[in-house]
Structures are given as C-alpha cells and as structure tokens.
Known about the structure:
By secondary structure, this protein is of the alpha+beta class. The chain folds into five domains: 1-68, no CATH class; 88-149, Orthogonal Bundle (Triger factor/SurA peptide-binding fold), CATH 1.10.4030; 151-168 and 396-426, no CATH class; 173-275, Chitinase A, domain 3 (Roll); 282-386, Chitinase A, domain 3 (Roll), CATH 3.10.50. The protein contains 15 helices and eleven strands. It has a four-stranded antiparallel beta sheet with strand order 4-3-6-5, covered by helices on one side. Helix 1 (2-17) packs across helix 2, helix 1 crosses helix 3 and helix 2 (40-56) crosses helix 3 (64-87). It is flat and about 90 Å long.
Amino acid sequence: MRRIRQWILAGCLLAAAYSQAVVKPLDGIAAVVDDDVVLVSELVSRMESVRRQLESNNMELPPKDVLLSQILERLIMETIQLQMGERARIRIDDETLTRAVQSIAQQNGADLEQFKQMLAKDGLSYREFREQIRREMIISRVQRSRVNSRVYISDQEVQDFLNSPVGTQAISDEFRVGHILLTVEERASPEVFAAAEAKAEDLYRQLQEGADFSKLAIANSSGGRALEGGDLGWRKAGELPSLFADRVLKMQVGETAPPIRSASGFHIIKLLDKRGASTQVQNQTLVRHILVKPSEIRSPEETKALIDSIYDRLMAGEDFSELAKEYSEDPGSGLMGGELGWSEPGKFVPKFAEIMQQTPKGGISKPFQTQFGWHILKVEDRRTQDMSEEARRDLALRYLHKRRFDEELQEWLREIRDEAYVEVRI
C-alpha cells in the first residue's frame, strides 16, 4: 500500500512539473550520469524533503518545474562526485557516520533516540538520513581532496590581508564588556548631576573593592542590558559604542574604568573577557624522545626488552642524546639525539601528550607504548609562548583559504559538470 502511495505521489509531482512528460514508474531513470543513474524515486524523495523544509520555514515554494529542475541538477552533481569518491575508494565507516549523526543530534538539543523521533515526526527515515549524511561526507572529502590542491596562498597575500581594513576587522579581537548606565536628564540641575556623579564614584569604589558587577548593574543600571547584569555580549572593537571603545582597547580583563560622563549620564564599564589572536598563548615543552618499534626481525617481546634496557641505562646515568642517536627509530629526530624542539601537546598523539605533561622538568618517563611503538621521553624545559602573531597569521590564512576554496570549488564544479556525460530522461 505504501509503495502504491509513493508511486502516486511521484506521478502527481512529476505530472504537475511537466504536464507533457510521461510519468515514469517509481524505479524509472530520471537521468543517466556517466556510469550511474539518478532514479525517479530519488528525485521524488528529495523533492518532498525540500518541500517540507521550505514549508516548515514559512518560505514560498518556487514553481514546481523550477523546483524539479534545481533538485535534479543537484542530484546529478552529487552523483558525479560520488562516482569520483568511489574511484578514489573513499569510505565512511559506520562508527564515523554514527559520530557525525550524534553531533547533528546534539546541535539540535537531542540525544540519538530523541533525534530519531524528531526525524520520524518530519516524515524522515533514520536509515535514509544516515545514508544522506554518508553521501554528504563522501562528497565533502572529494571536494577537499580535489580543490585544496588548486588553492595557493602566498606569504605576501597573507600580509596584505592583515594590513587591509577587511583583514583588520575579520581577525580583530572580541571584547565582552559590562556596562552600568546612570541616566541623567539633559536639562537636569547641577545638583542632580553632582548626585549622579557621586553615586557613580561610589559604585566604582565598590567594584574596585570586589563587588559583583552583575548585581550592581541589575540594581542600579538604566541601560538596555541591565537585567542581563549589564553584559553587552561579545563584540568586535568596531561594534563597541564609540564613547568607550578606545578605552576598552587599553583595558586588561577584569579591569573597571573610572566613570565616564556623557550627555545621557554616567557610564561604568568593566572588561569581563577578551578573545582573539592577541590573547593566544601556548604552553610549550622542550622534549626529546627515543622510539623503538617491532619489525620483521624483532618481535614485540624483543622490542619491549630493548626499550626496558635503554631505560635502565638512562637511569644509570647514560646520556639521553647519545642513546637516542644509537637506538631511536624515529627518522625525524633520531640523528638529532631525539630532539623534538619546542612543542605543544596538540602536536602529538594523546598518549604521548599525556606522558609529556605528566613528566616533570628534567625528568625521564618510563617506557610507554603508542601506535608508533615504544617511547621514552625526556622533558628538558617548559615555557609559555606568546603566539599572537602566529595566531593572527593563522587566522588570516584560514580566512583567505576559505574564500579561495569557495571560489575554486565553484569553478571545479563547473568543470566536472561540463566533462560528465549526462542524459536527462524526464
């Protein structure tokens, strides 16, 4: 019965879109695309999904023939890219797919079971939803692998972007500012102004002594965000009120500025928080390591015995660097005495990062195993490094890469569409 209803729906939608077209059966071919096809059933299913989505967002539906044409073209492009993914042997395993679906569920404020119910309420099958996400993930990987190689950004382009007004705004810091406003009528008497000023000074004194800004704002401020504790939310410098924007830029997090007088009264501001490139610092560790790993001529047991013997020699006082040169099988660091340089924890696999963080300065770890083999590491020093300039350049590079990627993606999509064999049959 359900199959019959689907067939009828397919016939109605396609007949409405193409009054002169012959309605295909549910498993008919809507288009031939290289070595694959787009089925009528896929087209009908996608049309219904788009229709529901547009209606749920109170958006006007386009004419049915326009909608049909747009969706068919989208399916053709998906099919081209999925075939490219198949030839490149791109696979999305079930575990990765489940994690992706769970992430989508969390973004919708639901666990997996609740999300399944939400899909069912919208008339969507959980199995079909998973497969659509799998398709999207494959297409995304195909696009990254093909388009990234077309994107090149020079150091000069990064610097030019950093110096441009657009770049300055795009990567500027964001500030979270607390604001208390004591309103004074423009034509108020000097006595009223003096009383308001005295109150502002008293509030400022209380804040200097550690009073809670939010509570004082709720109790005293006449600003628009008083009930939110005076919190103006995250804003870039250019979005801050001009009255105190320059002052905020010079403040430290947690600092409260003296009262500021304006035509509307007295303002007290506090820099609640700050984020952005200029706040980027990283904890770095100067570390060495020795790596040995099993091979065709050395069993796992023999490998473990070797790393234990190296550890014993280190504990007996032998030089770490010399033993690393002799035994370490890490081609990148072995010849340099195991030197990995100043490194952040995120540079390494979790187990290595964990041991590195736990090992005291000057200490040598016990042997531990990762997917690469058996390690011993030595922490030579630690520091906190200001990474603001590197962070600014990294933000600029990511911004430029995304913009260039989007441009190259559209060009690449046009190219693969022109090169594909496509025969529309409806």
